[in-house]
Specification:
By secondary structure, the protein is mostly helical. The chain is built from two helices and no strands.
Length: 52
């Protein structure tokens, strides 16, 4: 098996975090709030469908 030593920029860019690690807690909190809001919206929609 031959090993390719060429740089793989796509792989290398995927390995880097998309968010600065110092900003990660704030970013994760924002994501969590967004997900909770969306789940609440979905829940209310589903409750509306279930109720006659």
């Amino acid at each position: 098996m031959e090993i390719n030593h060429e740089p793989n920029t796509e792989r290398d860019s995927m390995a880097k975090p998309a968010v600065d690690l110092e900003q990660a807690p704030d970013h994760l909190t924002e994501l969590l709030v967004t997900v909770k809001d969306q789940m609440a919206q979905i829940d209310s929609i589903l409750r509306g469908i279930e109720e006659p």
